[in-house]
Amino acid sequence: MRNFVKKDMVTAYFLMNVSLNHEIEVIQRIKEVLESDYMLDYEIQGTFGVYDLVLKITAKSDDHLRHVLLEKIKPIDNIQSAITMIVI
Hints:
alpha+beta; Alpha-Beta Plaits; four-stranded antiparallel β-sheet; 2 helices; 4 strands; 28% helix; globular
């Protein structure tokens, strides 16, 4: 987490279900993908309950957020399903 969020940035929660026993692998892969993008801030946690992982992500724009989630995160192996909640 980088902690440089500005008021004009967009934040979302990306809730994921992953394949059984692949939580740590998916977390590591997400961190690898996001560490190289200095225009966003993120935090990822494993959870108990309906979803296995929660990613809080803040990006410079809606388009940037959409690109990161759809093109970089969602295709990661062992993510079975996901839902995005945009913070207003």
